[in-house]
Amino acid sequence: MITPMKKVTILTLASHKEETLKALREMEIIHLTPLQNAVGASVNGAKGAVARVQKAMEVVPDKLRKGVTPAAKGASGVTLVEEIQTLISDKKNAEIQLEQAKEELEKLHAFGNLDPRTVKELVAKGIFVRLYLVDLSKDPFEVEGDNAYKHVFGKDENGTYIAVFTKGDAPASVKGAFTELAMPLKSLEEYRMIEEESNTTISAVDERFAQLASVKDDLEDRLLEVTDRYNLVEASASMLQNKGLAALQGFCPEPRVAEISAAAKANGWGIRVEDPTDEDNIPTLLGYNKLSRPMQCLYDIIGISPGYNEVDVSSVFLCFFSLFFAMIVGDMAYGLLFLGLAVFARSKMPKASSAGFHFVYLMSWATIIWGAINANFLGLTPELAGWSYYLDIANYNFIPEGVRNVLYWIRSSAPTDPTRFEAYRQFCETFTFLPASFVPKAAGASQMQHIQLFCFCIAVVHLSIAHAWNVVVRFKRKSSTFMAQVGWLMGAWVMFFLACNMVLGIDMPKFVIPMFIVEVVLLVLFTVPPSRLKQDFISIPMLVLDIVNSFTDVISYIRLFAVGMSGAAIAEAFNGMLSPLFGSAVGVAGAALVLLGVHGLNIALAVMGVAVHAVRLNTLEFSNGLGLEWSGFAFSPFAKQKN
């Protein structure tokens, strides 16, 4: 449920701004909205403090490396940040000096231990010295003048290094393909010392960073402190102020308005509580029940939130997401693995939020149940592993025959037991509205069409819920467009029958064409409210594309079949290829290693499939039918980070 909000305006003395904000911060009750841009030296200073701590945390490793001496405890967060800032500066300077030294050594290495002080002495005696990098392969290097002398120091892949000495009033002119090199500021020996010292400094700083990993918790505490300070300063700067008074504004959950009113009375604030307007940018606070609480984890992972004026679909989203997750992962063993890991993690983190664990528990059990329905355990069959026979619940006699046949019907292949196959075949023949291809011809025969039809059934139910919900919402809002949603609801069933006909060869009922005509009439007449007909007239011809899209929405659910079956097919294929190795201990060990990698890859692909397909079917196809844009942002009360 989306919690109703009230817009709250509080008036206080300008001299008491900070005290007022601190009181509200302790209550954690109001989502502040700025009344003006937060600017000023205090804001910039607080923001800079946050940036400095963040920078300090970036350079310190998360964990203490083996063999590294931990830093001494007891230093304050302020002291640690100052030390790290100094270390960062030292390292940066050392890196600059190292780069400069390397550049000079690379450029002048062929000149030996050239000392600029010696060059200065020569210049003082009237001797000019110039350094050149010459490409002798292009042109000869010539020096003009009788008082000039050239000396070749050496060569490398870049060319020949030559020094020209000239006695006189000016340096000698030279000809050829050359680049004149600047005289170094230091001797090459000094540059080598700088290089060594810089490397030593960088290593020492990195070692100190490694030691400080032991006190990173103190840095995290400091980050919370400066973040709290920044939030307080920013909130203060965003308040309106005039004639000794200051005002702030925000949104408070309606059930807690009495608390903030009592606080206003106790603190002497002026307060105004009103209903938000359509122009207000209202945060969304979702209230979860026991059924929908796991959705809190999924919303946080995806980073979405319904708008304040939209509907909360958490329960429906979670129900269908669980089904999609189970169908895509599809393997009982994977579900057991997820469940075991979640239970283990919960035992190690008993104080962590329960929403995430409940979400994993639910997904795990859904996968286990779907895997049991489909008798899918690591792609094993009784022919490869006899014990897998007992994992198929349809093999137990206590299962009623009708239930057993339903379990067989939604599997990718018919039962292999001849006796049970005959009963199942007769069960399939009772569905006279389905083509003969839906009746398996032999035990173990493929029946992929059954899963495809099941996916289309999920599609029409899922989309029907969306459109029916939209009908109710718009009817309550007294909008005539609710009749258009009735048309879309009918259209979902029209497209379902059309998809079944085109993909599976199922005959369309005679009422489908009249239903489609009624759908089109309702859409043309009621998609655009009469009051907006001039502005939104273009929406009517665009209905052609929307109707086509409604067909693709239904077809889109076939991805559940395709992605789910691909994982099972990979597992079965590798089991078949590696089965000849099961005859020896070495073969079993080798096959086990290969299968471990295969199933690891399969799990990774399944999780990616869930992230892409299961999320999409809820946030796109279903949400489009409901008119849900996920345009909201979460309610974030003004509160301390460090608690």
UniProtKB/TrEMBL annotation:
EC assignment: 3.6.3.14
Any one of the GO BP annotations: vacuolar acidification
Main location: membrane
Record keywords, A-Z: Coiled coil, Hydrolase, Ion transport, Membrane, Transmembrane, Transmembrane helix, Transport
Broad enzyme group: hydrolase
Entry's transmembrane regions: 315-343, 355-373, 451-473, 485-505, 511-528, 582-612
Coiled coil: 84-111
One cellular component (GO) term of this entry: vacuolar proton-transporting V-type ATPase complex
Keyword match Zinc-finger: no
This protein's record includes keyword Plastid: no
Organism: Fibrobacter succinogenes (strain ATCC 19169 / S85)
This protein's name: V-type ATPase 116 kDa subunit
Protein's cellular compartments: Membrane
Sequence similarity: Belongs to the V-ATPase 116 kDa subunit family.
Membrane association type: Multi-pass membrane protein
Recorded GO MF terms: ATPase binding; hydrolase activity; proton-transporting ATPase activity, rotational mechanism
